[in-house]
Amino acid sequence: MTRLIATTSALTLCAVSAVAAPAKTDVLTTYANIAEAKYQDSLIAAQTLQSAVNALIANPSDATLNTARAVWIAARVPYQQTEVYRFGNAIVDDWEGKVNAWPLDEGLIDYVDAAYGGPSDENELAALNVIANPSFTLSGETIDASEITPELLAETLHEADGIEANVATGYHAIEFLLWGQDLNGHDAGAGDRPWTDYAQGDDCTGGHCDRRGQYLSAATDLLVSDLEWMATQWAEGGDARVALTENEAAGVGAILTGMGSLSYGEQAGERMRLGLMLNDPEEEHDCFSDNTHNSHYYDGLGIQNVYLGSYTRIDGTPISGASLSDLVTATDPALDAEMKVKLANTMQALGLIKSTAEAGFAYDQMLERGNEGGEALIMGGVNGLVDQTKTIERIVTTLELDQISIEGSDSLDNPNAVFQ
Fold first, then answer.
1. Residue 168's closest CA among 180, 159, 176?
2. How many domains does one find in the chain?
3. Which of 82, 181, 275, 393 is most buried (CB neighbours < 10 A)?
4. Over the Cα atoms of the chain, what is R_g?
5. How many whole angstroms from its chain centre is CA 243?
6. What would the pLDDT profile of 218-242 be if each residue is shown by its tens digit?
């Protein structure tokens, strides 16, 4: 579902700013430069994760498992700030499912609790457990999975049979392999996979520890190569940068499309409001690790830093330049001020979710039916995101851009449909 934002060709401005408007090409250059930096940071963090995964596989222990988990959480910080580049940039949206698809039927990958169930009419592969099965049948063909490789995951297993829940690659497949299922429901606590799931010989738990290590290694290697590819697309001469700058007005529209769609349909709707309506901890974005509060926060920060044209890299290096904020200021300073205030309000609300979760009130506890405090926290974020989208729509009109489409969500636009 999309929200169509149309513009008028003639506007009467009640005030004229004395601030000179930056060239749109400069605004697009800043946007692309920050994209390149964010994907480079995501790649660097994934390479650090790759080293930690290799250490876990080579020397399984509580220490190496916990290090890999901590590095995975750190790797989410730069990546979540890239999600604002989806929706407006087809090259990102077409690729994103390789690295951040969710939710997933984790039984495709590894052993699961008996309550998880087995194959269903919706997904015959929901409990395939490729780690335990070196050979399986897919669409009538026998698949040799005796060696778990990046190619097997990317070309055969990921979205097998055209089912989106068959997520075999990316951050969340790795997350599941590091934490295991979160069986705590609405109680505190993340997944608790033992380090012995990667041990060799008689110490191995869960069975097939060597294949589990193969899968984890292959998925992490694939994540690194996928991020390396996307960082290249935003470099000088890269396809993403070239596509963005072919038409300046369309490029600015792409920025606002990404901001609005992530704010409204994706984050406020599918990632936050829907989970609250269903009171379902399985609707958490980072459900195995209980890291959802951070994912929401850094998604919001990504929207804010794109508007402001400013980003601080993971090594502390700042990147900034001509921004969408500068462009809006030159036309309507009051509207720019409004946008900045709403972005700040949203970040305050998302920050409160984050700090409260870090203090011990986990996001899946917030989702529990009847928990008024949790509902208030989540709806604070939802309302901030929805409110800032209204101003994004006004900016589209003020800048006299062509019609854009902002992603919607039944949870916001047609709540009754959620329960049908």
1. 159
2. 1
3. 82
4. 22
5. 22
6. 999 999 999 999 999 999 999 999 9
**Residue 94: exposed, middle, or buried by beta-carbon count in 10 A (0-12, 13-18, 19+)?**
exposed
Is 420 within a domain? no
Instruction: State pLDDT tens for residues 189-199.
Output: 899 999 999 99
Give me the amino acid identity at 41.
D
**Residue 298, token pair as written in the block:** 């850094």
pLDDT at 282 over 90: no
CATH no. for residue 351?
A: 1.20.1420.20
Q: Which residue has the tokens 């380090």?
A: 195
Q: Which of 98, 105, 295, 72 is closest to 179 using CA atoms?
A: 72
Query: Among residues of the chain, what percentage have pLDDT more than 90?
Result: 87
What's the token pair of residue 238? 């890269």
Work out the average pLDDT over 308-316.
Answer: 98
Location of structure tokens 């097997």 = 152
Q: State how far the Cα of 219 lies from the Cα of 151, in Å rounded to an integer.
A: 10
Q: Which two tokens stand for residue 27?
A: 């605004």
Q: What's the burial of 145, exposed, middle or buried (CB within 10 Å: 0-12/13-18/19+)?
A: buried
Task: Give the residue from 144, 171, 162, 180 showing the smallest Cα distance to 46.
Answer: 171
| Confidence tier at 3 by pLDDT (50, 70, 90) | low
Q: What is the mean pLDDT of residues 367-383?
A: 97
Task: Return d(Cα 292, Cα 383) in angstroms, integer.
Answer: 18
Antiparallel, parallel or unpaired: β 135-138 and 2-5: unpaired
Residue 245 tokens, joined: 């700058």
Residue 179 falls inside a structural domain: yes
In the DSSP assignment, the letter for residue 82 is T
Range of the domain at 106: 2-411
pLDDT of residue 5: 54
Cα–Cα distance measured from residue 227 to residue 229, given in angstroms and rounded to the nearest whole number = 5
Q: In this structure, are residues 227 and 99 in contact, taking their beta carbons and an 8 Å threshold?
A: yes
Identity of residue 331:
T
How many C-beta neighbours within 10 Å does residue 39 have?
A: 25
416 within some domain: no
Q: What is the average per-residue pLDDT within 127-155?
A: 95
Residue 55: pLDDT above 90?
A: yes
